[in-house]
């Protein structure tokens, strides 16, 4: 299965929000290995990874917002340059 063939269906009527997903074999194997190593179900491993990813994304967004606030309020040209470079690196990568 390729990434382009991944499917996602959501049962909105289910009490916990059931989800069916197809994924590339290498990702499935990695998640299965993680679940086995931690002694948890495959479902729980997927949920943990999704939560961690969502939290990381939120933290990155908050960090960017903080940098932008500091950049706007900065009066020192050298500090503004440093903050601008840091913002650029976050947005466009290093």
Sum up the structure in keywords.
66% helix; elongated; single chain; mainly alpha; 94 residues; 2 strands; two-stranded antiparallel ribbon; disordered N terminus
The helix/strand class is: mainly alpha
- The average pLDDT is 86
* Beta strand %: 5-15%
The count of strands amounts to: 2
Major β-sheet, in short? 2 strands, antiparallel
Fold blueprint:
Elements: E1 8-11, E2 18-21, H1 25-38, H2 42-73, H3 77-92
Antiparallel strand pairs: 1-2
Helix pairs in contact: 1-2, 2-3
Task: Describe the model.
With 94 residues, the chain is mainly α. The chain has one domain. 66% of the residues lie in helices and 9% in strands. The protein has helices at 25-38, 42-73, 77-92, and strands spanning 8-11, 18-21. Strands 1-2 form a two-stranded antiparallel sheet. A hairpin with a 6-residue loop joins strand 1 (8-11) and strand 2 (18-21). Helix 1 crosses helix 2 and helix 2 (42-73) packs antiparallel against helix 3. The longest helix is centred in the middle third of the chain and has 32 residues, at 42-73. The two termini are 32 Å apart. Mean pLDDT is 86; it is low at 1-5.
Offer a concise description of the structure.
The protein is mainly alpha-helical and 94 residues long.
């Amino acid at each position: 299965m390729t990434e382009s063939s991944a499917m996602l269906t959501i049962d909105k009527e289910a009490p916990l929000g059931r989800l069916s997903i197809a994924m590339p074999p290498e990702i499935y194997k990695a998640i299965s290995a993680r679940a086995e190593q931690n002694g948890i179900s495959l479902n729980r491993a997927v949920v943990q990874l999704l939560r961690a990813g969502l939290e990381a994304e939120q933290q990155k967004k908050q960090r960017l917002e903080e940098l932008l606030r500091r950049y706007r309020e900065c009066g020192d040209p050298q500090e503004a340059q440093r903050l601008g470079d840091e913002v650029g690196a976050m947005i466009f990568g290093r």
